[in-house]
Amino acid sequence: MRWWPIIRPASLPCSASRRIEVTLSELYRQTVEAFAAAGLDAPQEDARHLVSGVLGLTLTEMVTEGARVIDAIEMQAVAEAVERRKNREPVYRILGAREFYGLDFLLSLDTLEPRPDTEILVEQCLPFLKRRISETGRARFVDLGTGTGAIAITLLSQCLEAVGVATDISEGALETARGNALINGVADRLSLQQGSWFEAIDGRFDMIVSNPPYIVSDEIAALQPEVRDFDPLAALDGGESGLDAYRAIAAGAGDHLAEGGIVALEIGAEQKVAVARVFTEAGFKLSVAAKDLGGNDRVLIFIGSD
Ligand code: GLN
């Protein structure tokens, strides 16, 4: 059943002139109410972003255009989006795109939704890339398991002299990343390769970067439905220990890292010690450990140990 009728039900006598006129502020209020009743954690924030996204309004216009009358087509579009959100589909999956580091990224079924946590990884990588460029005039990196391409594309848009390779095992993800590279104007500096970890990769790089799947398999069932039911499992599942991807990356990194290069990784909040051990045993040294905005360990950077 529709959560809010666009037009009075046929059983009620109703002429065109008596059609219910809903304003933007009323629509927002109804949406918040529907989300709160559905038990969502952040009904106001979700309503603000979903309604503005569906209607193509800025967040400021959501406030300044409150008296605007919403037409039937807009009502229908918002009603459908609201139903999807009530089924726990994340707001930005419904909208089909998400902002990351100030850039827009299209999402698809094959891609993880980029998270603000991953912006910390990008922030930690940038000074190294920029230093490398100032020292040598160039920098070349590989982003393993690129998904939407958020990491690689953001790095390229921030470092105009850098070039990147991005890999993914999923063809669908690579198509999404290709679209995102075009939208963000870096397609000429990004090469996309299909394969698992280093499978499709030749040569050495100044930086190896990745936000690999790192959730312990047994913990996936307990994730919030927004993640468990909508992010692709292949982008989340890190195997029995959560460390499978780190082991694969550590095993191949020595053959693909240039002298003086770094390996920069996103990690799960509880994985600092375990991932550090995997890389130490493979001959690397922990150089930087950074936390996310929630104070959780989130990024590790390793260097060669000699
Ligand atoms: N950060 C994601 C989450 O916990 C997981 C992403 C990943 O496994 N790389 O929802």
UniProtKB/TrEMBL annotation:
It catalyses: L-glutaminyl-[peptide chain release factor] + S-adenosyl-L-methionine = N(5)-methyl-L-glutaminyl-[peptide chain release factor] + S-adenosyl-L-homocysteine + H(+). It is an enzyme of class 2 (transferase). Residues 131-216 form the Methyltransferase small domain. Pfam families: MTS, PrmC_N. Keywords: Methyltransferase, S-adenosyl-L-methionine, Transferase. GO terms for biological process: methylation. Residues 26-96 form the Release factor glutamine methyltransferase N-terminal domain. Substrate binds at residues 211-214. It comes from the Bacteria. One of its GO terms (molecular function) is peptide chain release factor N(5)-glutamine methyltransferase activity. S-adenosyl-L-methionine binds at residues 145-149, 168, 197, 211. Its EC number is 2.1.1.297. Methylates the class 1 translation termination release factors RF1/PrfA and RF2/PrfB on the glutamine residue of the universally conserved GGQ motif. Belongs to the protein N5-glutamine methyltransferase family. PrmC subfamily. This is Release factor glutamine methyltransferase. It comes from Martelella mediterranea DSM 17316.
